[in-house]
Protein 1
Amino acid sequence: MSCDISRGRLEPCKDSVGGLKAVYFINKGDLGAATYDTTNTDAIDSFAGTPTAYKFDIKGGSTYTENITSSRENGTTTFEQVLELQLTKLTKEDHKTVKLLAYGSPHILIEDNNGNVFVAGLEHGLDVSGGTIVSGAAMGDMSGYTLTFSGMEKAPANFVKDGDLSAAGVSVTVGS
């Protein structure tokens, strides 16, 4: 792998927005091998098999960040992937799901408000590294769950080509 860059970057148009729209959880090991776009190896065309993704709609309060750590002395570069998720409303069903998410290390597909879908935890999955179950104090306070998922990968989260999960072979299950 060459470390030389091969392109520049123009000032982009101001047509991008922040925020996350949805996250999709896939049980660790169910994702299957990724097939990459032949012209853009940072985009995934498809996954082997038919992994099932469990969709969670989200609004505001949730963020995705990748922290890059590169060490010249060690000759290493890593990408820490951090998803801070806010799920409103406490329910018996969600309580069980949150517990299972904390026990596991799922792969997480993250859809932003620009239609991009990123694959976090592609190799190692992400672990719940913190969170809360909160009732709120006043009637206008949030009642729900906050979860922080963290993982370490050798490369940044790949894009799913065209943000199209069905074309990538992912079966999506939507909650009730």
Protein 2
Amino acid sequence: MNNIYTKLAEALNIYEFTEDYTSNAALQISEYMTADSYDIHVMTNDPRNIQFDYDVFYYTPSFSQIIDRIKELNDKDAVVYVSDFETYLPEYEVQDYIDEHEENLLELLNVETL
């Protein structure tokens, strides 16, 4: 696993991200194909019970939508399955998020020490 995704997992307070499919993932983010050969994007907590109005995206969900959904897990033991990191969590956006998160933490520490 790339260290940048380990850092992201720490920043989001989850156990890990994986590209290896697991049915035990707290959140699964992947692409599905419809019967008439259209690609859709699914971000679900339960792949056996997909909520179309909440879990299914016609277009690739934005980085912030994905991060918000991961934050909803609020579980330090959560595993998040991502079928393709470059599609859903590209390294440059992850690095920007980590940098911003670390900056916010430093600001918080500075405020607390004043």
Protein 3
Amino acid sequence: MATIATASLTAQNTFTTPVTLEGYFNLSISGVFTATVTVQRSHDGVNWHDVDSFNAPAEEVGFDPEYRSYRVGIKTGDYTSGTVVIRLGEEDREHH
């Protein structure tokens, strides 16, 4: 089964549901917005660390060699206007 988190964010301090990823994964950021979108990673699901940020729509491929939790969102103070549409996930490896 695929591991995917999606969200349409319209406020600061909002994130996707965390997903645990390993190997290659995709990140899609779309919409019309004025905001800084931050990708965060956690080893324990409690303490989150910034790993990347975007100020415009983007299509990215990431890689993590071990299972870790990721979430994507807008931190406090990083939102001005619009809707950020996010899709973060990996496909089911059985279909490759």
